[in-house]
Amino acid sequence: MLFSYFMRGEEERIFLEKMPIDLYYGPGSSPCRIVLLAAKSIGVELNLIPLNLMEQEYLKPEFVKINPQHTVPTINDNGFVMWESRAIIKYLQDAYGKNESLYPKDAKKRAVVDQRLFFDRDLYAHFHEVYNKKTFSGSPPDPANVETANKDLAFLDKILETSEYVAGDHLTLADLSLVVQISNLEAVKHDVSLKM
């Protein structure tokens, strides 16, 4: 009887480990695409739960109950809820990753990856300033915002002059995050030589 009780507990643990992680996301959202790309690279199965951001589904009471900050992406890993894309991908790697090179355990190597992830957050914010007004209200971008964003790209070029990847000699979570931002710039046909 006791043995069957412990076996049932083990079966439940295995079942829970195989349950995919819920990802609440907006399909066009850059932060959500970061999580999708990283999860694929890490080998984590996600149960995708799309939210219509234009219709503000993230403000529905059932979602606010899960995430009081009501932001996407948000994950629910069998009751463990987390939001903020870069925190999510670090968690997924730490909890489920088999390839340590994506987010090294070595403190100095990990610090470089973290620094590049913070840089990516700033890059995202600066380009959001450039294209948010242009996209939603039709007004031209502020020249000072364009200059700041292009300085970020120049800094990224400097990093890549010394290394094939942004945080060393192999692919890391920082590369996965930054590639989403760079693909956005290609999508909007951003001119890096743009001076306003």
TrEMBL record:
Biological processes per GO annotation: glutathione metabolic process
Pfam families in UniProt: GST_C_3, GST_N
Gene Ontology molecular function: any one: glutathione transferase activity
Residues annotated as domain GST C-terminal: 106-196
Domain GST N-terminal: 19-100
Subunit structure: Homodimer.
Name this protein carries in UniProt: Glutathione S-transferase
Source species of the chain: Exocentrus adspersus
